[in-house]
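Help! Submission page says 'invalid entity' but I think these are all valid:
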Amino acid sequence: MTEQTPTDVHAAWLPAEAFRSLGSRRVLVHGAGPLVDTVYEEAARACAEHGGQVRRAPAQGHGPAATGEDADLVLALSSANSLGPAARSVLAGFRAAGGGTAAIGDEGYLLARRDGTTLVLADDPAGLLYGLFHVVRLGAAAFTGDRPAEHHRPAVRSRMLDHWDNVDVHPVMGQVERGYSGGSLFWHDGRARGDLTRVRAYARLLAACGINAVSVNNVNVHATEALLLTERLGDVAALADVFRPYGIRVHLSVSFAAPVVLGGLPTADPLDPDVRAWWAEATARVHQAVPDFGGYVVKADSEGQPGPFSYGRSHADGANLLARALAPFGGEVHWRAFVYDHRQDWRDRTTDRARAAFDHFAPLDGQFDDNVVLQVKHGPMDFQTREPVSPVIAAMPRTRLAVEFQVTQEYTGQQRHVCYLGPMWSGILGFGPWGPEGPTVASVAGGGTEPGTGRAAGGGIVAVSNAGDDRYWTGHPLAQANLYAFGRLAWAPGADPAALLDEWIDLTFVPVAAGDPAPLRHALHAMMAGSWRTYERYTAPLGVGFMVRPGDHYGPDVDGYEYTPWGTYHFADRDGVGVDRTRATGTGFTGQYPAPWSQVYESPGRCPDELLLFFHHVPYGHVLRSGSTVVQHIYDTHFDGAEEAAAMRRRWADPALTRLVDPALHARVGERLDEQVRCAEEWRDQVNAYFFRKSGVPDARGRRIP
Ligand code: GCV
């Protein structure tokens, strides 16, 4: 078995140099418990590296050594005895402002600076850990001047990464389904990895950007992965031991057919008493092995996975079966709403895949147990470069919903293209499903009220991870920014994605730059900030989606899915293009939205340009809100997008930049950019040629279309 080589791993957003400010101070860690141990170890590691001093106050400490009066940084649990006067006054001020009883709250922290001491105060140890990483992000600014107390806490309780990692190498999908970063961090060729050093480093990176849950295997549960629930449970426990010190709970994807395939029962019918007993016993064993087990992730009746439909039962029956097995232990089931007919007839224009999740799940609102989280892909199709927000998000007020993103770039360049997705996710999280003035997607995911009081508590924000055993974690070193930004947006959905990009650059590149980092910082920002829109320009136009090579989903193939059973069509003909999803003449999908979106999307004149072809079939001469015609827009954006990719490549080749970056990393980014430029030209030429040949309309600017 090949083991991972921890020595050869990129430090990503936690290079030792990023800890310089913290590590050169006198640090006092005040409190007890395993996560406080982690905080202490982080501080100790930084101080050993940069010449500072770290002390640990005993839980019941007293006297000047424990109060932190002689420390530059105090990280203390609010419950700790003998806090110094500065910490006491910050806490008192905070509580007084909240009417005397304010709690800092789970995972939250207060950050302040008084009389030369920086203070991080938290009610629970996870908050201290997050506060420590905040101090790292601030660098020298954390130790300058006075800082009034700031209260930080996550807007969303569950911030989760799903790994689509196979234990065995799958003959088609490989070790990681839709993985573009080498092998799995956890599994290698049918077995758990023996050396979990990299998993520990990964857990640390995740905690530093705010992630607190992971699921460790593919939602397509094949034979070996199914065994993780039973005879391979020890492997799950070993992973949980590594994630736990960073405040991260482990979840497992399970097969709905487990009672049959693992338990030898004749049925997996959710209403069968033997099936219930089987799940209850299996789940009790999981909790014995992993006492803080997070719960199950389930893909049922989807793309060939088994589910309750086989027994004539509903998805509420299916989800509640697992929820009841998990409830005694405080676990949750993440039940995916990605249910659609993947064997439809392309000739049938009435079946619309976009409708499927709503049609299946909206009628079940109110029927799910409190520990069921319905995990909904952010769009109605499948992680396309541009989709409207899924109508399910507005349709199930009595169900706990989690919104699912895809950090792994299945449809956005597969970590061969620079495509910073922060702006896309930020737009979705800030979208108002009931209109711009109402609650946002983030507030649905974050919740705030418990079931029974109106709206259900939020189920969280989830994404499919893009990390693997690649030296740079993510294949393309710049794809690390997506993992980082996802975690930070899940913590603070209102954060500015451009500022998060800078934050990532400042941690990852600036501290290790071989010279003045300013040009590098500037260049990376310029290359990445708008890269999602660049990618959109040279790929499928105006929200129509797909047009990719079937199967691997990389590179252009305009008609690749047009005559397939997958429900992903653009319907281009000689007159026009797009999918009519209107109530008036199409599939009626627009009717799944509440006002105002049901009206906005219904009308080609009001529909945002970038989604026009998602909702409407229009003639090539249709004039967009931008003033351009559809076909001219296609030509223009494809020429522009390919040119923007080329400009990115030229910028990266600037010798002034090359000098500042580690040569191996520079070369890796350069190779990927070469491929991006090649692929963008291919997209440009195939899409432009396709629409020129279909429409016969020449480019108004006379550019060469092959
Ligand atoms: C894990 C798409 C992907 C599949 C993925 C599926 C899902 O269909 O192509 O690889 O399966 O989504 O989200 O379950």
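Support: the input was valid. A stray whitespace character was the problem, and the output above is from the cleaned input. The radius of gyration is 26 Å.
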